[in-house]
Specification:
It is a single chain. The chain is built from five helices and 13 strands. Strand 10 and strand 11 form a beta hairpin. The protein is about 25% helix and about 30% strand. Strands 1, 8, 9, 10, 11, 12 and 13 form a seven-stranded antiparallel sheet that branches. Strands 2, 3, 4, 5, 6 and 7 form a six-stranded antiparallel sheet that branches. The protein has about 260 residues and is an alpha+beta fold. Helix 1 runs antiparallel to helix 2 and helix 3 runs antiparallel to helix 4.
Length: about 260
């Protein structure tokens, strides 16, 4: 599972600029369409251009990259439901190739009969995460630079005296599985405390760095063990909104705070 910063509904304003690629936001809802970066070009030497595109795709395979080729025309599309910095970096590198091959942007439609090319696709080796467990997969609304963020969230309660040790144990779990973000909100209710905790990473694939996937099932098992060891249980006792944990955020681990917290 890929946690952290991504773009779906908006372009990362102020972070990237493109001469060839155009961003199309995801559709969401029943329309259910991915976000896309697309460029359609005319190439004086289409075979040489495509060879360089394939070489680049081999160096940076962790993105959905497809093409349509017909004669001297080539359309390149990077798409997905969570475009990370990695995708925008690859698009920037592809623009260097396009300029080097003296390609020119065209607004016309691709000629009929174009060949579809599957050039790269990410390989998430972690097992799929199924909803309904101790952790919930949640996403934020667009925030800083129109970024969205994906988290795993835990709602729980435990004895107030055990809170510090519990948070320290979760911090250790995050360190062991390479999660860079952990923060929480809390509310004390007598000798108990309600907690809402968020686990994530920051920006993914900046400057073409490999993506960091999280085994969400392993994280859920470790979190459940920590919760049981500290006398805690899932969910929040009390009434909403009176007993909802809203004090915070309390930062335990953090990178890319402007993106993660929307500040």
């Amino acid at each position: 599972m890929l946690l952290g910063v991504y773009w779906y509904y908006g372009f990362p304003t102020g972070l990237y600029h493109f001469d060839f690629f155009t961003f199309r936001p995801g559709l969401g809802g029943h329309a259910d369409g991915p976000a896309e970066l697309t460029a359609t070009v005319y190439a004086p030497a289409p075979i040489a251009l495509l060879d360089q595109v394939r070489a680049l795709a081999a160096r940076y395979p962790e993105v959905h990259l497809v093409g349509d080729a017909q004669g001297q025309y080539l359309r390149l599309t990077l798409g997905g439901y969570s475009l990370s910095d990695y995708a925008f970096y690859v698009a920037r590198e592809l623009e260097k190739v396009l300029r080097g091959q003296q390609a020119t942007l065209t607004a016309g439609a691709m000629p009929a009969g174009a060949e579809f090319l599957r050039l790269a696709a990410p390989q998430d080796m972690t097992p799929p995460y199924h909803s309904g467990g101790i952790l919930q997969a949640v996403s934020s609304s667009p925030g800083h630079c129109q970024a969205e963020t994906r988290y795993l969230r835990l709602d729980c309660h435990l004895p107030l005296a055990r809170k510090s040790g519990f948070v320290e144990a979760l911090d250790k779990v995050c360190q062991e599985i390479a999660l860079d973000v952990l923060y929480y909100f809390d509310l004390e209710i007598g000798q108990q405390v309600n907690l809402m905790l968020f686990f994530s990473n920051g920006r993914q694939g900046v400057d073409g760095q490999p993506l960091r996937y999280t085994n969400a099932n392993s994280l859920a098992d470790s979190v459940a063990q920590c919760l049981a060891a500290h006398g805690g249980q899932p969910s929040h006792p009390g009434n909403y909104p009176a007993h909802y944990p809203k004090r915070g955020p309390h930062i335990v681990r953090m990178v890319d705070a402007a993106f993660m917290l929307g500040t």
